[in-house]
Amino acid sequence: MNALTVLISCPDQVGLVTNITRVLAAHQLNIVAMREFVDEANKAFFTRIACTGNLKDADKLKEKLLENLPNAAEVNLITKQEKQIAVLVTKEYHCLAEILIKNQFKTLGANVQCVIGNYESLRDFTEKLGIPYFYVDHSNKDKSVFEAEIKEIINRFEVDYLVLAKFMRILSADFVKDYAGKIINIHHSFLPAFIGANPYRQAFERGVKIIGATAHFVTDNLDEGPIITQHTNHVDHNFGVKEMVRAGKEIEKKVLLEALELIFEDRVFVSGNKTVVFK
Questions:
Q1: Which intervals hold domain ACT (predicted)?
Q2: pTM score, whole prediction
């Protein structure tokens, strides 16, 4: 018996679940889990179905599903296989370390193909874990040249997603377009307040009581792409800048890894500038 995940998004209408399950049954597929959601405001339907069975003809199954769904439906059939990722970094190690340790022990749900950094700071750590590290200098260089060099490295590998693990360079619209829906970023959730350098010091000086982190897909609008997951922690007057930075890094790691797990398990649909997440 083989595992199959069926992802469907389409305009909502009466009878969708019946039509879908009938087609799956006709192909001798057993449904072991099914989640669905209707976005009533946009009249949109989303479902994630986990099946088992011996699928003989994936193209025929997809064709049959589309025949029984409204126009503009999207159907993805996913057999169990690990995603392939590239990780982009600058100097901060905490998110990269979490990813590489999970990758080392085969608990990431994906394979890290390479790490690309615009500083050499994280090379030794990366290479000690057997992952190739590529240095791409950004200084005194046009952004288009810098990004072209990054693309050249990425294109050496078969990559499903790019993970920005505290990569602190703003990517151009052209770069984002080339990897639309495939770039995941993590940042502190003070935005739009406390922008720029030293956000935790700014937050400390303002006396904030909550810190958090947001993982999202990258779009042309800086830090405003569809949100995958968020978390917050409470802080108080006992937290100095160092304690806030430490707490911030912990929650950034937690949120990024949670978002990656959801994506690698095909639990996230993008709908406009929002997401539908089947946890």
A1: 5-80
A2: 0.93
